Structures are given as C-alpha cells and as structure tokens.
Amino acid sequence: MISVCVRKRPLIHAECRRGDTDVVTTPGGECVIVHESKEAVDLTQYILQHKFYFDQVFGEESSNEEVYQRTAYPLVQHMLSGGKSTCFAYGQTGAGKTYTMLGLSPGKPGLYALAVRDIFAHLSTTYKYSSLLVYVSFFEIYCGQLYDLLDHRKRLFAREDGQKVVHISRLREVRVDSVSSLLEVISQGTAERTQGMSGVNPLSSRSHALLQIQLRDSNQQITGRMWFVDLAGSERASDAKKSDRQSRKEGAEINQSLLALKECIRSLDREESHTPFRQSKLTLVLKDSFVGDSMTCMIANISPGQSTTEHTLNTLRYGDR
Fold first, then answer.
1. Pseudo-torsion of CA 184, 172, 78, 70, nearest 10°?
2. Which of 60, 92, 132, 143 would suit a FRET pair with 301, their CA atoms being 20 to 30 Å apart?
3. Nearest to 190 by CA among 251, 99, 116, 261
C-alpha cells in the first residue's frame, strides 16, 4: 500500500523581505492549487491554476505532530505488528524536508522522534513485546555509493543473495533503548552527512539519507522494520550556484535515482511482471520495502513562494505520477 501526501511550509522572513508572494493554496484536505503567473503574447499578465489531488494535503498551519499522526503513525503500527514500513520526504532544497523529519528541537520534534517515542511506549506497555530490542542504522547514498554515517563514512556494499534478498555488508547497527539515545545517534549521523560534502552548500543535501529502525527478538530475528528516507534536494544541477562538473554529476545521479524510484512505484502499482529495482542503488537497497507485507508513504514538501513556482510544480507532478 502506497500513499502520497503533500506538505506546504509557510513563507519565511527572508522571502517576505524579498517581496516573494504565496502562490500555493490548500483549499481542502486532499487538494493543492498552484497559481502560476504567466505573460501572454501581448504582454498582458494572467494566472494559470494548476490543481493536484493527493491522499492528504497539509497547509502551513499543520504541525509535525499532525503530519505524523496522519502519515507515519499508521506505518509505525504496521511495523509493530511485524510488517515493513517506509516513509519518504521529497522536495527541493529548503522546502522543509529536514524540518519534517528532524524537527527544530526536542520541544518541537520531527517524524523520527515521534515515531520512536511511540515505538518505545508500545514496547514498554505490552508484556508480549518486552523482550524486543531496537536497532538503528544510518547511511547515505551519494553519487551511487553507500557510506555509513555511524562509522566515519565507511564505504558500504549492497549485494543480493541467492534468495534475491539485498544485504548491506559491513553496515554498523547500534542498539538504542530510549528516544534520546536514538536522537543522539541521528544527530551524530547527520553531522557526518553534512561534513562529507565538498564544494557544495551544506544546507543543500546532495545525498539520500536512509535511517533504518529494526525490532529484533532474543534470537536476533527481525520482527519489524521501518525506513525513514530523506531524499536529496530535487533541483536541477543547472540551478546550483556552482555548476561545476561535480555538481552536474551529483544532479544527474540524484535525478536518475528519483526516476528509478518513480518507475518502481509505477510498476508495482500496475502489477507488472518486472519491477526495475536494479536501476539505482536507492531502489535496490529499498527493494524489500516494496514487496510482501509493506506500507509506504511519500511526503512531498513544497515551498509557497512565487520565485520557486517551477520547482513546486515539478515536485507536485512527481508526486502525482
């Protein structure tokens, strides 16, 4: 089961100072409208309205708690009952992906912390689950290569075994026993991710970050798994301030993996005989999350400003497809 949601962030002070106007409206719980300014041949101005419909649409007034309850909470419940869950955050740099996933502070948590809060609350209140252990791993995919964010960016390798199950060899897994210990692991990994980028604005994530939370019994058998995937900024390489060879390579790699992800979801939706998981490292690693007893939610994050209209439309079209 796959659901697609959209979250619009409010205009920030810098955009208001620039005179940027809000061109995105969210009239209902499932509709989002982009009001695009256009110029006719005779130079008269007109507004073109683009309407999109999704499973859920969150306006700028929605809190992380509300977004969590309606997107990731059902995924957490599915994981606790033994299933596989995946939550994606998608959108251009600055659209609010990291705010949605990480939050601002312990007092304003993101989806990571809210999910783990519920996982530990569930484990502590149910006798049946008292013997389960929580393990976390955190790695990034940068230019088609895997790097362990919990082990000094050590290079990792994804390989399929004889049963077509994908394993990531040498991936470090850390056992956590509380929300605070897991957030500590995440902040350690996030710092590694930022430092690992050379010549690129560190605020612009040019890698996909994958956080995996596993439940295991006393025999180390996996009894539930959840992925949080913070996808790389979806802007084109030509939009980068430094459009050098490395930036173009990064952009091409990001676009190729996002296209592969879209193709895999489309193929599964149509129940086609072949799903192209091998088209990118991202889809190969997440193959297990799309087959069998799995639930997936993609949260497309959009900026409301007129200056980012093209990016917003691209994000919404991608989510729509």
1. 40
2. 143
3. 99
Beta strands in the chain (DSSP E): 2-8, 24-25, 31-39, 45-53, 56-58, 84-90, 103-105, 108-109, 133-142, 145-148, 154-160, 166-169, 174-176, 208-216, 222-230, 294-302
- Nearest CA among 228, 219, 223, 225 for reference residue 126: 223
What number of residues does the chain have? 321
**How buried is 131 (Cβ within 10 angstroms: 0-12 exposed, 13-18 middle, 19+ buried)?**
exposed
Rounded average pLDDT over 140-145: 91
Structure pTM? 0.89
CATH superfamily of 2-7+64-303: Kinesin motor domain (3.40.850.10)
Joined together, the tokens standing for residue 303 give: 């900026």
Q: Give the confidence band of 202 by pLDDT, cuts at 50, 70, 90.
A: very low
Q: Which helix (H) or strand (E) holds 288?
A: helix 287-290
SS3 of the chain: helix, strand, coil, percent, to 5:
35, 30, 30
Q: Quickly state the pLDDT bin for 201 (edges 50, 70, 90).
A: very low
Report the SS3 class of residue 1: coil
